[in-house]
Specification:
- It is a single chain.
- With 59 residues, the protein is mainly alpha-helical.
- Helix content is 95%, strand content 0%.
- It contains 1 helix and no strands.
- It is rod-shaped, with a radius of gyration of 26 Å.
Length: 59
């Protein structure tokens, strides 16, 4: 294998690794966004639960 072939092979490996890292980064951002949405929903769920408890207790 000549130097040019070796260089091209390394270049392709680096490109593949970069694509994989970019994909992993996107997935992490999406997962963070989902978790943040779930965290934002949590206080609402807790409030609804407390309101139901209050209504049951008043009745």
């Amino acid at each position: 294998m000549g130097m040019k072939d070796q260089f091209q092979e390394k270049s392709e490996q680096f490109q593949q690794q970069a694509k994989q890292r970019a994909q992993q980064g996107k997935e992490q951002l999406q997962n963070r966004g989902r978790r943040r949405d779930e965290d934002m929903d949590e206080p609402q769920r807790q409030r609804e639960s407390e309101e139901r408890f209050d209504q049951d207790y008043d009745a």
